[in-house]
């Protein structure tokens, strides 16, 4: 098939032929990498029209609200799979068979503990430190403990690092929570499932046997699945950019955690609950919708809108259904769910939100389930980081195991032309 081309016509220059790349799914893309050699750059703040890399891991069709991980829809994975299976799929490209799954789960279980010295890091933090601040610090420090596996060109080092990160993030996340409470930091129990073990470390204590509700464990596991990966979002792009310099994977994941923390990204789930608290009750919804529409008001409807989805975020739909299931099974009647659903209904009928194609995203309902599970708002983004670690590692590994260049964007310079320094005693 003849290669499709784009013809770039620039006044005063010869026409430039640019190759058009055709993906398995999605839009054709113009390869602009030859522009530099022709004395031109592209300008695309926020990368709204720019593909930064080739990837086989996740595909999003924002127009129809579709999310595929290695070709499987998020709806099917959330309903029929579990988080560690999705981890295997994201890392290896295929779902595991029974033998592969048993081996994968067994290896993860053998890495759930952190080095005892890691526990000392926590004592350096104030008890009221935000758990994301602690997680950034502790995960970044992990590279100080694994000198045996920091050769990023060695596939075995990359593999053991993936296992260590997937296995240890729940342990570290729970330690961040327990430290804030002043309660003993819990050890993992390898007789428990992944989500069950996390809830054990979060809510258990050394004085009694932990009983983890299967309903909550299943809801937690589904939340982990829904947050596992999402293509080249801000934090994943941060991990790729950090990794492109050859930085070790623990440092790259710590960079991803930092990027995720922002309220425009993974910090939105915490911001949604704070927003619902601020709105208070249904009578205030119209007031806050007006604020969200007011260009002069910085208030945004948290949990709404998305760079890619211009339709429902399919994860939000699964999350909303799971909200009802979990709250009904727990017999919880959380007025925040009713408030959130009313807010969604009013916003989606408003011309502003319809015109700008602003729909609920993954963060809109997740906090309500997390709250029902008993997780404090300050831990919501920590859980997002825990879940997304496998996505970050899968993208990092995909980049490092193929030819890559250091990421180095250019700029549109609008500063001063060259000028000469005036001696201090002559300056006005
Ligand atoms: C995540 O990228 C990913 O994949 C991220 C993520 C993942 O899994 O990794 O999906 C997770 O980060 C979900 C998004 C969570 N963030 C929020 O819920 C915060 C609230 N949302 C907004 O901040 C915003 O929608 C973003 C940041 C999510 C997207 O911003 P964009 O793509 O830069 O779009 P934009 O800000 O240019 O918005 C387009 C218009 C603007 O108005 P105009 O300038 O055109 O007049 O819509 C308006 C915005 O002001 N707008 C909103 C709004 N979101 C966008 N107005 C009110 N409330 C909102 N929530």
From TrEMBL:
The chain crosses the membrane at residues 364-386. Signal peptide: none annotated. It catalyses: oxaloacetate + acetyl-CoA + H2O = citrate + CoA + H(+). Pathway: Carbohydrate metabolism; tricarboxylic acid cycle; isocitrate from oxaloacetate: step 1/2. It holds the Pfam family Citrate_synt. GO terms for cellular component: cytoplasm. GO terms for molecular function: citrate synthase activity. It comes from the Bacteria. The keyword Ligase does not apply. Belongs to the citrate synthase family. This is Citrate synthase. The gene is gltA.
């Amino acid at each position: 098939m003849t290669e499709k081309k784009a013809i770039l016509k620039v006044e005063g220059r010869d026409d430039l032929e640019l190759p058009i790349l055709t993906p398995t799914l999605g839009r054709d893309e113009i390869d602009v990498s030859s522009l530099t050699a022709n004395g031109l750059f592209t300008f695309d703040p926020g990368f709204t029209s720019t593909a930064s890399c080739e990837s086989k891991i996740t595909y999003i069709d924002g127009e129809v609200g579709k999310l595929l991980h290695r070709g499987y829809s998020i709806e099917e994975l959330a309903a029929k799979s579990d988080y560690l299976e999705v981890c295997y799929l994201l890392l290896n490209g295929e779902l595991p068979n029974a033998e592969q799954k048993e081996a994968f789960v067994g290896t993860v279980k053998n890495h759930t503990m952190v080095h005892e010295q890691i526990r000392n890091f926590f004592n350096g933090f104030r008890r009221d430190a935000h758990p994301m601040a602690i997680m950034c610090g502790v995960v970044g420090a992990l590279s100080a403990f694994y000198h045996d596996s920091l050769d990023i060109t060695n596939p075995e080092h990359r593999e053991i690092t993936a296992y260590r990160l997937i296995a240890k993030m729940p342990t570290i996340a729970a330690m961040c929570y327990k430290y804030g409470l002043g309660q003993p930091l819990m050890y993992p129990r390898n007789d428990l499932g992944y989500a069950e073990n996390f809830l054990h470390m979060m809510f258990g204590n050394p004085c009694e046997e932990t009983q983890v509700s299967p309903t909550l464990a299943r809801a937690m596991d589904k939340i982990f699945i829904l947050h596992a990966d999402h293509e080249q979002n801000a934090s994943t792009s941060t991990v790729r950019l950090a990794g492109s310099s050859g930085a070790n994977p623990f440092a790259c994941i710590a960079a991803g955690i930092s990027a995720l923390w922002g309220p425009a990204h993974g910090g939105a789930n915490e911001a949604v609950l704070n927003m619902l608290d601020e709105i208070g009750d249904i009578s205030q919804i119209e007031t806050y919708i007006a604020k969200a529409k007011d260009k002069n008001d910085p208030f945004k409807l948290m949990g709404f809108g998305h760079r890619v989805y211009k339709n429902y975020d399919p994860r939000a739909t699964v999350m909303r259904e799971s909200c009802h299931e979990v709250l009904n099974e727990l017999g919880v009647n959380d007025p925040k769910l009713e408030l959130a659903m009313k807010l969604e209904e009013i916003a989606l009928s408003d011309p502003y939100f319809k015109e700008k194609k602003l729909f609920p995203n993954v963060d809109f309902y997740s906090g309500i389930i997390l709250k029902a599970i008993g997780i404090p708002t300050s831990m919501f983004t920590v859980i997002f980081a825990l879940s997304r670690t496998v996505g970050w590692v899968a993208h990092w590994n995909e980049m490092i195991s193929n030819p890559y260049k250091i990421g180095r964007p250019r700029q549109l310079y609008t500063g001063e032309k060259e000028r000469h320094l005036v001696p201090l005693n002559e300056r006005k």
